[in-house]
Amino acid sequence: MTDAFADNDALILVDAADREIGHLSKEQCHLGRGTLHRAFSLFIFNDAGELLLQQRAAGKRLWPGYWSNSCCSHPRRLESMDSAIHRRLQEELGMSCALRFLFKFQYQAQFDACGAENEVCSVFVGRCSDPVIVNRDEILAIRWISAAELESEISGPGAELFTPWFLMEWRRIWREHRSALPGGLR
Predict the structure, then answer these.
(1) From 72, 91, 121, 128, the catalytic residue
(2) 128 part of the active site
(3) pTM
(4) Which residue from 53, 83, 151, 152 lies 20 to 30 Å from 170 (Cα-Cα)?
């Protein structure tokens, strides 16, 4: 598979209230401190209640090799959020499942002097028993993890191996949305 979302594809620029205000290439959105744009993060659980984590591919410009949530990306210009989340889940993991919106938040995370994330990110949760078909252009490795194991990892010296948005999202999910998660995590 190849990356179906090239750096020059237009992302949706937004204001702090997530109102569309324009478009800019993916590459330009992530330069310097980043330009605020729309994004999403997906948290996929299996029937045992374990969360699917992905390790970002070594070729990623921002946070290569870091562990993160199951799937994250951006809707394209003129693409609905619903279309984008299902498209990207299929492109990255070869999966299809129902996804439920949990919350939306704004954050900025600096990777280096040349690049950052600056996003209004919608967070979704789903359960899937499909086999995972990894897109190697996007993902170096995957693993399923229980909530207890994840809590232990992000509370210890290994927390620096995770993307900053994943840590923010998981902490909020665990604090405010635990009852919305698939069984085994409550």
Answers:
(1) 72
(2) no
(3) 0.92
(4) 83
